[in-house]
Backbone:
């Protein structure tokens, strides 16, 4: 934890003590979550250059402690949130001493082998006046259209900075903030921010926007974001739910992202700030410069326990959609070097799109994606807690740096069950399976991947 964050945390604690425990402790919540993850990834074939990534089969155990305080009494309420994470590698993992392959579940030691265990702690000091709340610290987990904290492996991604949220007006939620660094889902430290392929760090991500509930069935959204020296982005969203009859509805979800270059990303001489990779960068003079429009439309029909969703997504031909990532840079912003301790599982990102699937996200330059999902809630058959879903996504017209066009598809399946009673009440089991297939020249290292995840979850709430 940085000195500034620690100072804020101590300050909030002192104020809480001075003001008395009422509110601060009485309204506090503390939980301890346990997650066991079995992760299996099988690259089905070698890339066109003859290189094949290693198979990965790994079992890990994670613990996440969260303490969320209430607020001290008075016009200004002060509080403190504390978070602690601990991960253990039970078996398996990538041995990177002889192959340039990234371990996506746990950190790696300097000799290229998986760490046996790792830990990270953080805190957010917070202040509340009326219905406006400010959080400052290094345990922030935003879930916004322009930035989604990734929780796709054992432990969640966290960010450092400050976020202010206001709900002073009925139906309107305003959010703004500035973030400087991120700690990845399998990292013990914080790194500057970047994008796909960028090797230079940026410590200035600013954003502002809001969600307005026009009616109980209609919500509109607008957000603006800027990752300094990489990109500027505007987001527009609309969500409408049409009740048809009892237990029957039709949902429309429209999203649009407009992304342009910022600062050094537009300078041809600053190659470290460019998008890199087939289907990410353009060609010639626009190679690596952010220039993307992406829109997506999703329509979901729900009837009882059944839900059928169909959609279409279009990414403009000029370049891929930029997505924040800290996996390509070290803590001080230097480039990642293979087989070194500079990479500690910082990679991994999420994006506010349905196409953000288990393996890929279908946001490449020119990509046109058709997708659908069917899900069922077995509570309607007398089995509460059991849910299942299957999704299929197909993207084509991907602009390649070779001048051609590529395509890819992914099939995802999942089953979730949460025990409803007995000693196992609240214990959850998730089984996920995904298959990715793509053209030979789309990926530089792996085109065809099969991935399986088995997750065991349990959260204990302290009373």
Residues:
């Amino acid at each position: 934890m940085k000195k500034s964050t620690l100072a804020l945390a101590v300050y909030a604690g002192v104020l809480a003590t001075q003001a008395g425990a009422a509110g601060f402790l009485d309204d506090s919540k503390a939980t301890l979550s346990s997650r066991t993850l079995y992760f299996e990834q099988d690259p089905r074939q070698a890339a066109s250059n003859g290189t094949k990534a290693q198979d990965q089969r790994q079992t890990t155990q994670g613990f996440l402690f969260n303490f969320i305080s209430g607020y001290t009494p008075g016009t200004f309420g002060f509080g403190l949130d504390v978070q602690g994470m601990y991960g253990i590698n039970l078996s398996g993992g990538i041995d990177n001493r002889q192959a340039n392959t990234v371990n996506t579940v746990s950190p790696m030691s300097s000799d290229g082998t998986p760490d046996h265990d790792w830990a990270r702690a953080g805190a957010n000091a917070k202040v509340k006046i009326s219905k406006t709340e400010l959080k400052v610290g290094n345990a922030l987990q935003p879930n916004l259209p322009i930035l989604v904290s990734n929780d796709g492996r054992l432990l969640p991604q966290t960010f450092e900075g400050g976020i202010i949220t206001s709900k002073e007006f009925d139906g309107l939620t305003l959010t703004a903030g500035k973030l400087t660094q991120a700690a990845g889902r399998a990292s013990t430290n914080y790194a500057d921010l970047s994008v796909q392929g960028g090797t230079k760090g940026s410590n200035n991500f600013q954003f502002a926007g809001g969600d307005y509930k026009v009616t109980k069935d209609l919500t509109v959204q607008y957000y603006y974001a800027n990752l300094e020296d990489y990109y500027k982005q505007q987001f527009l969203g609309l969500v409408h739910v049409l009740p048809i009859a009892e237990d029957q509805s039709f949902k429309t979800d429209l999203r649009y992202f407009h992304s342009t270059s910022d600062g050094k990303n537009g300078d041809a001489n600053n190659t470290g700030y460019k998008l890199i990779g087939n289907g990410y960068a353009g060609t010639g003079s626009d190679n690596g410069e952010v220039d993307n429009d992406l829109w997506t439309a999703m329509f979901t029909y729900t009837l009882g326990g059944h839900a059928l969703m169909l959609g279409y997504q279009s990414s403009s031909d000029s370049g891929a959609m930029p997505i924040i990532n800290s996996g390509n840079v070290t803590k001080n912003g230097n480039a990642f070097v293979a087989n070194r301790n500079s990479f500690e599982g910082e990679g991994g990102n999420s994006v506010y799109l349905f196409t953000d699937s288990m393996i890929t996200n279908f946001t490449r330059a020119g990509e046109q994606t058709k997708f659908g999902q069917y899900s069922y809630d077995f509570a309607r058959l007398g089995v509460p807690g059991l849910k299942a879903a299957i999704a299929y996504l197909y993207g084509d017209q991907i602009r390649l740096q070779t001048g051609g066009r590529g395509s890819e598809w992914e099939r995802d399946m999942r089953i979730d069950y949460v025990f409803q009673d007995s000693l196992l009440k609240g214990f959850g089991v998730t089984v996920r399976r995904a298959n990715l297939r793509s053209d030979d020249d789309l990926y530089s290292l792996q085109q065809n991947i099969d991935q399986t995840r088995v997750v065991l979850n349990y959260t204990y709430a302290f009373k």
